[in-house]
UniProtKB/TrEMBL annotation:
L-glutamine binds at residues 45, 219, 221, 247, 250, 288, 290-291. This is Carbamoyl phosphate synthase small chain. One of its GO terms (biological process) is 'de novo' UMP biosynthetic process. The keyword Ligase applies. GO terms for molecular function: ATP binding; carbamoyl-phosphate synthase (glutamine-hydrolyzing) activity. The gene is carA. Keywords: Amino-acid biosynthesis, Arginine biosynthesis, ATP-binding, Glutamine amidotransferase, Ligase, Nucleotide-binding, Pyrimidine biosynthesis. The active site is at 246 (nucleophile), 331, 333.
């Protein structure tokens, strides 16, 4: 099944298709993870994107029942150097090609992923389309240049109905902007009584639930596309402890008066070093985001910077100076990736307990 990847910038990559025989287009990004492709494929934060894997062999341990981060994948397609036809792992239920066929997803293999990654690093993320090899390249390029991708990615992946994951401990409202199951796992592991709610919930609805804390989840797209979430956050800051992750970090920062901007090619991988400026310790983190908080804009807010990315010195975390709320740009739940930052969930638990007992004044 000969296919080609065509970019709006004019470059064309020839390869072999896998998965369903469908054409697909999206924003082409790259991920540097060596493992964890199943979690990556099912991560809602990749909604609308075609992901290029920089590691040369993908699919060598198959697809299993345990490593999903969402019930249905939201990404548009996958680009790999080589796809493994014969995975070897005791948990494997099917290979990557079969999984893509069942989910009606398309991918392309056999292309120079190193060249594509260098191109993205040089020019920035770019729109692209995986098509049949006979398709007119110029027609696709012109269509990609004229096309405007939708801005409702969060609405697309967020739950439409609230649901509960019962526990006997602290009650946490998890606002689903495209939440990974890894976040839910970490909260339930700590016996939290979790209520997962839609991205368009308002502050009054949350207050009626009388939670001990609010978790703002990860999610795809531009944080400025969900202004209703900013209003909700402003209405609960100081009244309910808040912990934000990735998209949640950007939304909390915007709600407090900071600004965000789009990165040239984003941070996507499982090996990003982050410095905690309070302790001067470095954690190796899992990341997946295309936007970042403007460090300079934090000076005009009540937020203080807590974490910095060592690769490009962008902001990776903040904490409110007066109220019980903090957030990080990376993924402390990993899935996939290192678990260096897992302790942040324990900090969230401690913050909720202190606020609840009124032992600490914010």
């Amino acid at each position: 099944m000969k296919k080609k990847l065509i970019l709006e910038s004019g470059e064309v990559f020839h390869g072999v298709g896998f998965g369903a025989p469908v054409e697909t287009q999206g924003e082409v990004v790259f991920n540097t993870s060596m493992t964890g492709y199943q979690e990556l494929i099912s991560d809602p934060s990749y909604c609308g994107q075609i992901v290029c894997m920089t590691y040369p062999l993908i699919g060598n341990y198959g697809i299993n029942r345990d490593d999903y981060e969402a019930i249905e994948p939201a990404l548009k397609g996958l680009i790999v150097k080589e796809i493994c036809d014969l995975p070897s792992n005791f948990r494997s239920q099917m290979d990557l090609d079969e999984f893509f066929k069942r989910k009606n997803l398309g991918g392309i293999s056999g292309i120079d992923t190193r060249r594509l990654t260098r191109l993205i690093r040089s020019k920035g993320v770019v729109k692209g389309k995986i098509v049949d090899y006979k398709t007119s390249e110029q027609d696709v390029i012109e269509a990609l240049k004229a096309d405007v991708f939708p801005t409702n990615q969060i609405e697309t992946v967020s739950t439409k109905n609230n649901y509960a994951s019962p526990g006997r401990g602290l009650k946490v409202v998890l606002v689903d902007f495209g939440a990974k199951l890894g976040i839910l796992r970490e909260l339930t592991k700590r016996d939290c009584d979790v209520i997962v709610v839609s991205q368009n919930i308002n502050a009054e609805e949350i207050k009626l639930m009388n939670p001990d804390g609010i978790m703002l989840s990860n999610g795809p797209g531009d944080p400025q596309d969900v202004p209703q979430a900013l209003e909700m956050i402003r209405s609960v800051i100081g009244e309910i402890p808040i912990f934000g992750i990735c998209m949640g970090h950007q939304l909390l920062s915007l709600a407090c008066g900071a600004k965000t901007f789009k990165l040239k090619f984003g941070h996507r991988g499982g090996n990003h070093p982050v410095l905690d400026v309070r302790t001067n310790k470095v954690s190796i983190t899992s990341q997946n985001h295309g936007y970042a908080v403007d460090r300079e804009s934090l000076k005009d807010t009540e937020l203080e910077e807590t974490h910095i990315a060592l690769n490009d010195r962008t902001n990776e975390g903040v904490r409110h100076k007066r109220y019980p709320c903090f957030s990080v740009q990376y993924h402390p739940e990993a899935s996939p990736g290192p678990e260096d930052a897992n302790y942040l969930f324990d900090e969230f638990i401690d913050m909720m307990k202190k606020f609840k007992s009124k032992k600490e004044v914010y």
